[in-house]
């Protein structure tokens, strides 16, 4: 994953208010597509070289965090997907045999705390955000996933595309039965 999480924000260059608003609307639109199960439209927002990554979080002693952080690129990941993998997952949602989605999951996604900076190349943006995903199934199953995202968006043929997504959740263990969702 090429996304670098840079804690020294003084080195980052924020975009204009107008560009921030445009990207915030893009992220809200993306989540509305997922909530409405418009998965093909959602896939159209992905760059052909998308890397959609949600590493597993590891419990580490504080003295090891500076060197190793909470996750490692070569360890377990909940998602480590390219466009082909995302397309397969979307196709699976559409199958009658997808038992994890029968009855269908009702989703509500929320994105907030959006920070937008210019990326390394022209037409590229580094976006930090906080997410919440509420998933409900059946009569009383409900799961909430919180996390932080770091996205790299690119302007391609006049449209924004998601090229990289890093999703970090605070949980070392997920309590939900499955993670049959997009974040």
Automatic annotation (TrEMBL):
Coiled coil: none annotated. Signal peptide: none annotated. It holds the Pfam family Ring_hydroxyl_B. Belongs to the bacterial ring-hydroxylating dioxygenase beta subunit family. This is Ethylbenzene dioxygenase beta subunit. CDD domains: ring_hydroxylating_dioxygenases_beta. It comes from the Bacteria. Pathway: Aromatic compound metabolism. Keywords: Aromatic hydrocarbons catabolism, Dioxygenase, Oxidoreductase.
């Amino acid at each position: 994953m090429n996304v670098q999480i840079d804690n020294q924000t003084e080195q980052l260059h924020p975009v204009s208010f107008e560009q921030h608003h445009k990207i915030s609307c893009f992220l809200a639109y993306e989540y509305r597509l997922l909530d409405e199960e418009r998965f093909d439209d959602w896939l159209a927002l992905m760059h052909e070289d998308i890397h959609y990554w949600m590493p597993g979080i590891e419990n580490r002693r504080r003295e090891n965090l500076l060197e190793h952080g909470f996750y490692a690129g070569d360890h377990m990941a909940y998602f480590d997907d390219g466009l082909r993998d995302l397309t397969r997952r979307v196709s699976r949602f559409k199958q009658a045999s997808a038992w994890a989605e029968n009855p269908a999951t009702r989703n509500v996604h929320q994105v907030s705390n959006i920070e937008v900076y210019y990326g390394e190349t022209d037409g590229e943006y580094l976006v930090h955000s906080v997410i919440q995903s509420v998933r409900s199934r059946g009569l009383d199953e409900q799961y909430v996933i919180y996390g932080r995202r770091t996205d790299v968006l690119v302007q391609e043929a006049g449209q924004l595309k998601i090229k990289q997504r890093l999703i970090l959740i605070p949980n070392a263990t997920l309590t939900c039965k499955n993670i049959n969702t997009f974040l």
